[in-house]
Amino acid sequence: MLAQIQKEYGNKVRHIYKDFPLPGQMQSEPAAISARCAAKLGKFWEYHDELYNNQSSLGPALFTQIADKLKLPKDEWKKCTQDNQTREVVRKDHGEGMSLGVT
User: Fold this and answer.
1) How many structural domains are present in the chain?
2) Is there a domain that residue 11 lies in?
3) 37: which residues sit within 8 A by CB, 6+ positions away?
4) Is residue 72 part of a domain?
5) Is residue 45 part of a domain?
6) 44 or 16: whose pLDDT is higher?
7) Cα 62 to Cα 67: distance, rounded to the nearest angstrom
């Protein structure tokens, strides 16, 4: 749907993605962190789509499997996923959503 909107409206529309890991979902924050790291390596939407299509299997093994499938530089991606700065960016997005009433 986003691709269709972008195609139809071109530069008139800008899509901004914010992380909002769901409370109570243990793998939600690690999934967001993993996708954020894929974004740093130019593969956010591909990674995002793989997560979405495999929601019932979320966990470290799946996150690594997707990174491998997308041929992300393993060491760089792994280091990013363990970086507290990445975690803080995800948590900042979540906090922003909460302050705006997102539930």
Assistant:
1) 1
2) no
3) 72, 77, 80, 81, 86
4) yes
5) yes
6) 44
7) 9
Residue 2: both structure tokens together: 């986003």
What percent of the chain is predicted at pLDDT more than 90? 83
Token pair of 4, please? 């269709």
CA–CA gap between residue 81 and residue 83 (Å, rounded): 6
Question: pTM for this one?
Answer: 0.89
Question: pLDDT tens across 26-35, in order?
Answer: 999 999 999 9
DSSP 8-state secondary structure symbol assigned to residue 45 = H
Phi, psi of 25, deg, nearest 5: -105, 100
At residue 49 the predicted structure's pLDDT band, cuts being 50, 70 and 90, is: very high
Residue 20 CB-density burial (10 A; 0-12 exposed, 13-18 middle, 19+ buried): middle
Give the separation between CA 101 and CA 103, rounded to whole angstroms.
6
Domain that holds residue 62: 26-99
Structure confidence by residue, pLDDT tens digits, 77-94: 999 999 999 999 999 999
17 located within any domain: no
Contact 41, 102 (CB under 8 A): no
